[in-house]
Amino acid sequence: MSAEQNKSIALQIYKSFDEGSLEQAQEFLASNFVAHIPGVPEPLNRDAFMQTVLRVFRSAFPDGCHTFEDVIAEADKVVTRGTFSGTHQAELFGIPPTGKRITIPFFHIDSIVNGKLVEHWGQSDLLGLMQQVGIVSVPGPSLITRKIFLAIASIKDRFNKKVS
């Protein structure tokens, strides 16, 4: 298949997810599909990816939608860069729904062979997601300034000890 056909297939997969049609998205996954997801030590097979990523995220963010800034295709690879936005309306990996709207950036590399997605590499800002739903706090400017001051003071002390 051409790079343009592969690009079209990749975008159809994301569109199916965004529309809540996970069965349609699953039809694009090869039987030997594997996904590489941050924080998951082993690649996920087709069924594990459907259950632990697609279904969980679609349930937690039923209005979730991908917005693409770049879609680049070469040979069997399609690279997408953009943001995922949605409202946290159901449990997400033990985090109760917060009703908060999130937007996180992502980079994905998908390998498509014979019209099927065979490998997915995903990288999303999961720390940003946790901050936006409120389970990880973002340090304020005064804390950051204090940490920088302490780091500089520590370096200065070590320098003064070496000089003396």
Helices and strands in order, then pairings?
Layout: H1 3-18, H2 22-27, E1 29-36, E2 44-45, H3 46-60, E3 65-74, E4 77-87, E5 101-113, E6 116-124, H4 126-133, H5 141-163
Parallel strand pairs: 1-6
Antiparallel strand pairs: 1-2, 3-4, 4-5, 5-6
What does it look like?
- The protein has 164 residues and is of the alpha+beta class.
- The chain is 41% helix and 32% strand.
- It is built from 5 helices and 6 strands, in the order H-H-E-E-H-E-E-E-E-H-H.
- Strands 2-1-6-5-4-3 form a 6-stranded mixed β-sheet.
- Strand 3 and strand 4 (77-87) form a beta hairpin.
- The mean pLDDT is 90.
Task: Provide a brief overview of the structure.
By secondary structure, this protein is α+β, with helices and mostly antiparallel strands. It has helices spanning 3-18, 22-27, 46-60, 126-133, 141-163, and strands at residues 29-36, 44-45, 65-74, 77-87, 101-113, 116-124. The mean pLDDT is 90.
